[in-house]
Structure prediction request, 225 residues.
Amino acid sequence: DTEVTQTPKHLVMGMTNKKSLKCEQHMGHRAMYWYKQKAKKPPELMFVYSYEKLSINESVPSRFSPECPNSSLLNLHLHALQPEDSALYLCASSQVRDRGQPQHFGDGTRLSIL
Amino acid sequence: GDSVTQMEGPVTLSEEAFLTINCTYTATGYPSLFWYVQYPGEGLQLLLKATKADDKGSNKGFEATYRKETTSFHLEKGSVQVSDSAVYFCALSDYGQNFVFGPGTRLSVLP
Prediction:
């Protein structure tokens, strides 16, 4: 069982739809991350929140919009996605952003764009 | 920039065989090093970590030692099981940097 919970586990959407991915952790961590993982590849960092403030946006297209409503929750709002956006989206958290702190991952949302 | 290199595999072993997955890194600073495992259909799980030279991380029979002189963090297990079949990622985290993951090594253990 992971301590980072992601919903939904699977999502199929059309290119004109709007949907949101949700991530929740109750470990008191103050850094949260969104990654995108394509098949047989390592995770690619998309966004980093530190103390509920966006600190890194790795040149992600504006059709992905992150939100951190509080220290336990992280959302990723999706709009007008492209077929190449189909991937596993992973959320992670760490105690703080520091070199010695491991990141704890959820099981991900598998997203398919029709 | 920082980078991680690891054998991509796939690595296929028989049950109870000895496992080594090589990992080497390039970093400008003094990074922490991690091994993560990803089972099919799941996220990444932290397997072990080391934060300074000569530290040995260990968990579930897996071990890795932080070797600064060879910039390596090789993963070893004395006797693998079918349940160890997964993808293994070596990663580093440096001051002011994000995680850098290696390409991953797919391990298949046959009964």
